[in-house]
Design a protein that fits this description.
The protein is of the alpha/beta class and about 300 residues long. It has 3 domains: about 80 residues, Arc Repressor Mutant, subunit A (Orthogonal Bundle); about 100 residues, Periplasmic binding protein-like II (D-Maltodextrin-Binding Protein, domain 2); about 100 residues, 3-Layer(aba) Sandwich (D-Maltodextrin-Binding Protein, domain 2). The chain has 11 helices and 13 strands.
Length: about 300
């Protein structure tokens, strides 16, 4: 017997009529009758006799019902588990993020997500861009979070938001009455640059080279929060992403939008060989809103 035939047989046997079975299954009575007829034809014997206008189970049907009940119970269990998986918050999400996201953005996203989804467990790694790709391809993590990730075979990227680079300065440096600053206004100041090994550093270096402005570089760093720490200590000024600029670990740093603006993207990365779970997709939706809040300048 096919699964649909088992469902119809179980419904008729327990409810006592075609009409009641159709109501239970939320289908029409003719469709119930048709499925039953096909089942009896395949079995080679009737399952019900009509006696004085009522359906009466045959002895063969009585013997089958015990087995059918077990099958039906397992099918119902399967449906319940499948439904619970769709709605469940239970599970683990493994995240790899570059250090710039690990200081403030990822903790903010996870803590706010856990307010409504308390049974979710997170595992976090802070890795550089190339290491994130390796972790995804090795199935060590479920998703990666990075700036402008380069295409990698076997990986897919989804842009969450785009933001602008900003100039950051210590409290002692101010551009009163200005909403934006130009690169030229930073020429005479000690400048903390980003290493060109990372995507933002490459983008910024290319922009500065094309602008023809020769800044007074005193430090190069691959870690954007190190650049911000140096600015907070009064070592100089820098240009960083808005996520780093808005992080809360240093309060005595001012940020200024740049004219003309230079934009970057924030993307979530996943492995093509490992489809994202409903749990991961739900978190990515939440992460998108948090990222957009951070990159607004």
């Amino acid at each position: 017997m096919r699964l649909r035939q088992i469902e119809v047989f179980h419904a008729i046997y327990t409810s006592g009529s075609m009409t009641n079975a159709a109501r239970l299954l939320n289908v029409s009575q003719p469709s119930v009758s048709k499925v039953l007829a096909h089942a009896e034809q395949q079995l080679g014997y009737p399952l019900f006799d009509r006696v004085k206008g009522k359906l009466v189970a045959t002895p063969e049907a009585d013997r089958l019902f015990g087995l059918v009940s077990n099958v039906f119970a397992h099918v119902e269990e399967l449906r319940n588990v499948a439904e619970n998986l769709r709605a469940s918050d239970v599970g683990k999400i493994r995240i790899a993020a570059t250090p710039a996201f690990g200081v403030d953005l990822v903790p903010t996203a996870i803590s706010s997500y856990l307010e409504k989804h308390k049974d979710t467990v997170f595992e976090i790694e802070t890795l550089h861009h190339d290491e994130i790709a390796d972790a995804l391809l090795e199935s060590r993590v479920d998703i990666g979070l990075a700036f402008d990730p380069a295409p990698v075979p076997g990986l897919s990227t989804e842009t969450l938001a785009s933001g602008e680079f900003v100039a950051i300065t210590p409290d002692s440096v101010r551009f009163d009455g200005q909403d934006r600053v130009t690169i030229d206004q930073l020429i005479d100041m000690p400048f903390i640059g980003l290493s060109s090994r990372g995507p933002l550093g490459r983008m910024l270096s290319s922009h500065l080279d094309n602008s023809g402005v020769d800044l007074n570089r005193i430090v190069y760093t691959e870690t954007y929060h190190v650049a911000k720490a140096l600015v907070a200590k009064g070592a100089g000024v820098s240009i960083v992403d808005a996520v780093t600029a808005r992080s809360t670990e240093f309060q005595n740093v001012n940020s200024w939008r740049i004219d003309p603006p230079l934009r970057y993207s924030v993307a979530v990365i996943s492995a093509d060989s490992m489809p994202l779970s409903i749990l991961c997709r739900r978190f990515i939706k939440h992460l998108r809103s948090v990222v957009r809040d951070f990159v607004q300048t």
